[in-house]
Write a structure and sequence with these properties.
Structural class of chain B: alpha/beta
Helix content of chain A: 25-40%
Mean pLDDT of chain B: 92
Number of helices of chain A: 8
Strand order of the largest sheet of chain A: 9-8-7-10-6-1-4-5-11
Strand content of chain A: 25-35%
Order of helices and strands of chain A: EEEHEHEHEHEEEEEEEHEHEHEEH
Oligomer: heterodimer
Order of helices and strands of chain B: EEEEEHEHEHEHEEEEHEEEH
Strand order of the largest sheet of chain B: 11-10-9-12-8-1-6-7-13
Distance between the termini of chain B: 60 Å
Number of strands of chain B: 15
Amino acid sequence: MKTAILTWAEVANGRISSNSLELLSLARSLADSLDGRLASVLLGQQDNELAATLIRSGVDQVYFLTEVADDFYPDRALADMTGAIEQIDPHLILLPHSDYGVELAPRLAFRLQSATAMGCVEGRVEDGRLKLTRTCYGGKARALVSFRSELGVATIRSKCFDVPEQDSAREGEITIMSGACAPTAPLTKLVSRHTNSADGVNLEDATVVVAGGQGLGGADAFELLETFADLLGGTVGASRPACDLGWYPQDRQVGISGITIAPELYIAVGISGADHHMAGCGRAKLIVAINNDPDAAIFSHAHVGVVADFESVIPEVVDLLQSPPGQDG
Amino acid sequence: MHIVVCAKYIPDPEFSSIAFEINPDTLRRAEVPGLKKVMSPYDEQCFEVALQVREQLGDDIRITVLCLGDEDDAKIFKTAFSLGADQGIFLNDPVLAGADGYITAMALSAAIRKLGDVNLVLTGRMAADYDEGIVGYGIAELLGWPVLPCAGSVSVGESSVNVERIRANGHDVIEAALPAVVTVSNEVGEPRRPTMRQIMQAGRMKPEEWCVDDLQLNENELDVQGARLVVEDVFVPTVERHCDFIQAATAADTAAQLVELLRTMKVGK
C-alpha cells in the first residue's frame, strides 16, 4: 500500500513533541480517507522507544534518518529529508508548526517544487482531494486551500487535535534509511543555542493559565496574577501588547505570534480579546474574562464574564482562595 | 554592499477588526471606508536592520526596495524611500496577479539575480495579511543561498552575517557567509521615523518598473494556473458562544461567586 501521509516527528529533550503527536490524529484520518499508509520520519540515532510511541499513536511505518546529526538544526537535515521524501513519495507531508517546522516546511516544498500550506487547523479529503484550513489575517480569517502540485507540504498548529490514544496492540514497521545520495554541507552554522530555564509550570502544558493584558496598566500587576495563578496550580501568560510594552517576558506571550495553548481554564485579565490573541487560546475548555470594558471583544469568546476593575476583584479572590473552603464566610 | 529589502503592501492590519470582512469575489480583505494599505510591519522593520548595517559598515551601503504588486501598490515606494531605500524595483505585471508564495519567490529571486551584485536580502518573517512566512525561505532556496530566519538582531561583517534567531523558549545564534537571506522579526525594534526632509525627498523618487519579460522567466509557469496552492475560499469563522456574566452588588460578592466557580472546577492546590 502506498504511503499517503508522511509526518516529521520532532524530538525535543528525548521525547516526541506534543504538537507532533497531536497532528497524527489528523494524519491518521487523512491516510484512511486516501486508502494509504501513514509514515513518520525521525531524525538522528535509532531509538526504538520513540518509534514504538509513534506506532502506538497510529503510524504504520517509521523511517529513521540516522545520518542526520543528533544536534538538530534544519540545515543539517534538509538534503537527507528531501532525498527520503523522494523515495517515500507521499501525497502530503505534515510538520508541527514549531520554530523549526515552519522553516523545514517551505524549504522542503521549494526543493520538491510543491505547495506549502502554513499554520493549518483542520483538514479533510473531499472527492479524493486534500483540503486544508489555515489561519490568515492575524487569526481574523480562515482560508480553505488545496494543492495543484502532486505533493503538498503543511504545518499544523499545536492544540488543534488531541494526542491520539495509545494502542499497544498496533504493529508497524521500522526502516533505517539513508537520505541524500550526495550529502551537501550545511550553509548555516549553528554557533550556540540558548534555551530559557523553565522555572515553574510550563505555559504550553499548564492546565490553568491566568493571562494579563494592556488593561493591567503596568508590570507590577503581573505579581498579583502570579499569586493568583499559583493558588490555582497554574501559570501566567500575557497578551502581545503587554509583552511589547515590556511588562512580561516575550516567551510568555499567548497568541498567534506567541504560544498556542489549550488549558482546562483560561482566565484573561485586562485583555481586549483581539483575534490574534484568541487564535492562541480560543481552544481553552473554559474561558473566564475579567475586564472593565463591557464591550471588550473578549466577552464574545469567554464562557464566563466579569465586568469589573481587576484591582477590586482579584485581591478578594486571592484572599478567599488562601482561606480553606468552608471557612470563607 | 548592496542590500535588498523585499516589501509587501497590505491592508492595514491594525485597522478595526470589527470592520473586517472578506470580499467573496477576490477572497481578500474587503475595502471599507478608512481602510488604507500600509507596508507590512515586519517588512518595515527590515529598513531598521538595513540602516543598522549602514551604521556598522559605513555609508557605502546601497539599499534597494523590491516589491511585487499591481498599480494600486505603487504608493509603497514613498514609504520605502522615506525609510531609507536608495532605489526601488517594482515588479508590476498582470501575469503575476494570482501569484502564490511559490511564484512570488520565483519572481523576487529572479529580480535579485538580475540585480546581480546583491549581498544581503531582507524580508519580514511573514506578511501580516496571509501570515504564510514562505517567501524568504523560497528566495534563499531558489538562489541556493543560506537563510537566517526570525532574526531578533542582525550583525553584518564584510563577508558574513550573524543572527540571533528567536525561538519560542530562547534563541539560536547562527552564522552564514554572504550572500544570504535574513527574515526579520519584531525584536529588531521599530523603524526609525523619517525626517520631514526625507519624506519630501521620497516624494520625488520613482521606482524602476520591471515586468516578467525582464526577469527571463517562463510566463506559463507564473500565472494563476502555475500557482501550486489553490485558495478555494476565505471566510471569517463564527464564534458561537454565550457568555454568562457574574453580576454581583459588590466586588467581594463577585469574588465569592468566582471562587465558587473555581472550586467546582477542582482547580488549585
